[in-house]
Each structure stands twice: as C-alpha cells, then as structure tokens.
C-alpha cells in the first residue's frame, strides 16, 4: 500500500489538487452556463468526495481525507484555475500528470484506483444533470456531447 505521506511538495499538491481540477473540468464540459445545473453538478461532485472518504482503496481514502482536512472539499483556489473551457484542458493535463506520477512511485493498485476515482468524479458530475442537446423539442440526455467527449479524453489521459 502506498502512503500519502510518501509524497511531499509539488508531488503532493499535484495528487491533492487534481480531483478538484477534474471536478471543474467536468462541470464546464457541458458548455452551459445554467446556475441550477451548476449547483447540481457541484453537489454531485461534493458527494463523490465525501463518499471517497470511505473508499475501499486506502490511498484514495487518504487523499479524500486529506482534502477534507485541508478544508476545501477538493476545490482548488479559483484564481489558479479558470472556471471556463480552459478548465477542461487543465484537468486532462493534470490528471495525466498525477496518474503518471503514481504509476511511477506508487503501488499499481493505488495508481489504478486513483485514476478510476478521477473518472468516477467526472462521470457522476456529467450524469447529475439531464440536458437538451438540440433545442426545445429535443430529448433530454443524461450526458451531453461535450461531457461525453470530456469523459473519453479523460479516460485516455488516465491510460497514457
């Protein structure tokens, strides 16, 4: 088992900041600026962070607990990361970097569980709000096209 205490400085920050960055990327992936949808997505993400404090993988649990102790519930400082389309690009880069670091320095099951958790965060957020894709008469979908693309790119980034 990998101990979170094995990481310090920038490496620890990368591991702890990435879930919040992925959360922001997932929130903006639908391309809509609806306050109610935003609130539902943030709430879904926060629930996923709380659930991770009881995660079956001890490393993911340690990360989630450290985020709670940080007092941020996995949110990064908004001045550091724009809450716009750039958030998706940053989320993909940071998720790839964090999982690469863990593959290099952590036990394989811990690195895999961390990556799966990042994808779970984004998936829960994407599925939290049904949206209409093509206007008034269109059918509501659970995951918008933008969210689907973001989830696919995130899965690829986590495998790289």
What does this protein look like?
With 160 residues, the chain is mainly α. 66% of the residues lie in helices and 2% in strands. It has helices spanning 9-28, 35-52, 58-70, 86-105, 108-127, 145-159, and strands at residues 131-132, 140-141. A two-stranded antiparallel sheet has the order 1-2. α1 packs parallel to α5, α4 (86-105) packs antiparallel against α5 and α5 runs antiparallel to α6. The longest helix has 20 residues, at 9-28. The two termini are 22 Å apart. Mean pLDDT is 87; it is low at 73-82.
Number of helices: 6
User: Average pLDDT value?
Assistant: 87
Query: Structural class given helices, strands, pairing?
Result: mainly alpha
Distance between the termini: 22 Å
Record the SSE blueprint.
Elements: H1 9-28, H2 35-52, H3 58-70, H4 86-105, H5 108-127, E1 131-132, E2 140-141, H6 145-159
Antiparallel strand pairs: 1-2
Quick take:
By secondary structure, the protein is mainly alpha-helical. 66% of the residues lie in helices and 2% in strands.
């Amino acid at each position: 088992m990998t101990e979170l205490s094995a990481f310090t400085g920038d490496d620890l920050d990368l591991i702890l900041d990435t879930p919040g960055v992925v959360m922001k990327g997932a929130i903006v992936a639908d391309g809509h600026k609806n306050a109610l949808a935003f609130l539902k997505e943030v709430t879904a993400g926060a629930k996923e962070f709380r659930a991770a404090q009881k995660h079956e993988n001890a490393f993911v649990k340690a990360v989630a607990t450290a985020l709670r102790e940080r007092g941020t519930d996995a949110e990064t400082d908004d001045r550091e990361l724009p809450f716009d389309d750039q958030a998706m690009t940053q989320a993909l880069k940071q998720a790839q970097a964090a999982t690469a670091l863990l593959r290099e320095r952590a036990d394989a099951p811990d690195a895999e569980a961390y990556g799966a958790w990042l994808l779970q965060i984004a998936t829960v957020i994407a599925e939290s709000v049904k949206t209409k894709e093509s206007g008034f008469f269109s059918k509501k979908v659970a995951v918008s096209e933008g969210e689907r693309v973001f989830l696919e790119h995130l899965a690829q980034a986590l495998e790289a």
